[in-house]
Amino acid sequence: MNGKIKSRLLDVLMATIAITVGVIINVIGDRWTGVQLHLFSGIDYFTYDWAMSLFLVPFVAGLPVALIYGFGGKLLAFFVPFIVQGYKYLDVFYGYTAIPEGVRLLPLVYWLLVVLIAMELAGVGGLVGEIVVKKTYGRTPSHLRHRLYKKAGSELAPESLPGADSVSSGVEK
Prior knowledge:
Layout lengths: L2 H31 L5 E2 L7 H22 L3 H5 L1 H15 L10 E2 L2 H27 L31 H4 L4
Antiparallel strand pairs: 1-2
């Protein structure tokens, strides 16, 4: 195998490990809160535990995904709540898990709205994880810039390049 294939296989392996860790954290968090987001029993079902299971657990599950995978981990973090909640929904939908009395399964459209919110919070957790990995957000840190762009005040265009005048580059001299 050449280096490119090995690099891609390593990326797939790291993505699989990162998503698996996120799924495990999400499942542990859901069991800790004791809430099943795919079930509904009335307005009294919306408690602090329900909110923690919807907002905090996916956020915490998205952090290690980005920390393990690195750049691009915020995109992988979106899959974690979908995998966990999708498995739970299908488990109840096909009758493998019994529904308690007085509780019903959310319709698919409403369940998708709940899962979409959980996925967004996992993405925010992944974003925070990437910020922790990168140590900055938005622009590339100065020590990672190309040598021509390291000069002070040269964020738009390098001043040392021939033909880079103040009119074309937007940098005043």
